[in-house]
Amino acid sequence: MRTVLVTGANSGIGFEASRKFYLLGYKVILAVRNVEEGNKAKFLISLNNNEERLVVRKCDLCDIESMKNFVLSLENDRVLFDVVICNAGIMNHPFEVCKNGVEIHFQTNYLGHQYLLDKLLDKGIIKETRIIVVTSGFYKNINKMFDINDITGNIAPIKQPNIYYSISKLANCLQVLSFKEKLDLKAPKSVIVAVRPGFVRGTNLGRHTHFLLRFFATPLIYLIAKNLDQGTRTIIHCATCLEKSIESGCIYADNLKEEYTSIVSKENAVKLNEITQKLMVEQNKD
Predict the structure, then answer these.
(1) Which pTM does this prediction carry?
(2) Please, what's the largest Cα pairwise distance for the chain?
């Protein structure tokens, strides 16, 4: 039986992708911050039918111990992943740093996922795996490579939340470039790509956006945004298409490969690795 890991599986794109993988016959590991919400998602996906193919696991991407325990549980169960969907994310969250001093968008959207991918690769849980990193066209809002002071508590002045979100989405694109090189060495039959779902309604991503803005924007959103089925099609395509139809290290939208902007470069991927190594000191303590 094929097995897929989906982070942020209890709502929005993560929920819909999990539902589709379940219908395709996959065993789905629903990695969630809130187990109660994860169990609700499990029930809605299965409707109490064949629940053994749906497994809820706690994984808080802002909590190092939670991530360590999650990886340990996978190792103990001897899980091997055919597909990993790095989907969990936040947007427009008020400025906050996590316990490790990292800005919350960067920690949730990028650094937590990077920790998981590194551990899954080191533990041999990733071997012949399709890895899909959910990014956003917001990465194009960043025209200069960020440094460590931009994504830690040393920031002055504090930026607008959408800038932090955009930085984290750029990090996701650079993550795909750099992790491809790790896969080439340690798991050469694996593939990693970024997916840009587009503007999708029905997600929980904008939960931190001011309620008045959400209220007035709702009619426009329903006119121009994709629904969840449309928003998850490229994820499913990249996870299930023939090997010759997908190229590791690239970004996909609407089932097609597209070009990165110039800021997504090998040079900036190296810079991100340097930042990441400094930030990972606490995460890598066992």
Answers:
(1) 0.91
(2) 52
